[in-house]
Write a structure and sequence with these properties.
370 residues, alpha+beta
């Protein structure tokens, strides 16, 4: 929750308490017997509603005791129940149905015990009982509605994550299909061309004849085509290059980069998609630092959900020459990182640091381990 949302809620709660207090005091001002103690009880009971989000049970207890003390002392009308009604609604909304019912009973008992007449007390008590029942029911309805909204949001997020994982799996299957087609068709045909060209060159040399330049060109071109095709097939068939972020750091150090690696949390096997994404993020971040940061110190931090968040956190910082006032133009590497992270339902931030240098922040949901 953002700070602005918190500020708005605090302001709304304060306004609610002020409105309830103003209504209660306005009504009490028309009663001839109202004194300073009554106004104090109304003010305290109403003010407690400002804390109903942080401490609903404490607010319920305070509003009930203060409200009951007020009706016992001043014998007011039904509107005196407003602070207690608000507290009962809030308690029921967060699941304290029993406490809400008990508070309603205590207040109604105090109201009935000090009523001015039998018929009038019965009418007012019945009216207040209906109000309290509505407060409890609306609180429960609001609680169920909020739970329904949370479940709907969770299902939508899960559906989005599943859709992205299915898309990644289908992309991998398509790569393998293309690799098989290339192997079964082009590889066989080029192999035949290369073999026949080689046989023709061998026979010409065996007979002492001059080998035609075109034949030599065919032999060389077919051999080069075979090598290129094998490289393409390896790329298509390999889901991702094997390795670990630690190995990448060692390679970067061997290349002359000043790199520190810190791993925290319970290091454990990850889902293949998350493992590949982590490897690529560290690889791309180190590559960018080597290209653009200049002689800089690089820090790589990897956290395996040590705080219980269920996320793999990857931070790569450098103190290079990046200018905080100039945002980088996303290239192929940064775009690829963002696509990988988004496909897994994570978040990525890659931008210059305020103190200088560049920072990459990736958060990946770990999910089930393999």
């Amino acid at each position: 929750m953002s700070g602005r949302q918190v500020d708005r809620r605090v302001l709304a709660d304060a306004v609610l308490a002020a409105v309830v207090g103003a209504l209660g005091m306005g009504v009490a001002a028309f009663d001839d017997g109202t004194d300073a103690l009554d106004f104090t009880l109304i003010a305290l009971a109403s003010a407690s509603l400002a804390l109903h989000r942080a401490a609903p049970r404490a607010v319920l207890a305070a509003a009930t005791l203060l409200g009951t003390a007020y009706v016992v002392h001043a014998h007011p009308g039904p509107l005196s129940a407003l602070p207690v009604l608000g507290a009962v609604h809030t308690a029921a909304r967060v699941g304290h149905r029993g406490l809400a019912g008990a508070a309603s009973t205590v207040f109604l008992a105090g109201y009935v015990a000090t009523g001015p007449g039998t018929q009038e007390v019965a009418e007012r008590a019945g009216l207040l009982a209906g109000w309290f029942l509505c407060a409890v029911v609306t609180g429960l309805a609001d609680r169920n509605w909020q739970a329904y909204l949370r479940q709907t949001e969770q299902r939508a997020q899960e559906a989005e994550r599943t859709r992205e994982e299915v898309a990644l799996r289908r992309a991998g299957e398509e790569r393998l299909r293309i690799a098989r087609e290339l192997h079964d068709s082009l590889t066989h045909s080029i192999s035949i061309v290369k073999l026949q060209a080689g046989v023709a060159v061998h026979l010409a040399r065996k007979r002492g004849e001059e080998v035609p330049p075109a034949l030599l060109a065919i032999q060389e071109a077919s051999g080069e085509a075979m090598r290129e095709l094998r490289s393409a097939l390896q790329v298509l068939r390999a889901d991702e290059p094997s390795g670990t972020p630690a190995l990448l750091v060692e390679r970067a150090r061997a290349a002359g980069l000043a790199v520190d690696l810190t791993v925290t949390g319970d290091e454990r096997p990850l889902r293949p998609a998350v493992d590949r994404a982590a490897y690529r993020i560290v690889q791309e971040a180190l590559t960018n630092a080597a290209r653009h940061a200049g002689p800089a110190k690089i820090t790589v931090r990897i956290d395996y959900g040590g705080g219980g968040a269920g996320e793999l956190t990857i931070d790569v910082d450098d103190d290079g020459a990046a200018d905080p006032a100039r945002q980088p133009v996303p290239g192929t590497g940064l775009t690829g990182m963002r696509e990988r992270v988004t496909a897994l339902g994570g978040t990525l931030r890659a931008a210059p640091r305020a103190e200088g240098g560049f920072a990459v922040r990736a958060r990946l949901p770990m999910g089930a381990t393999v």
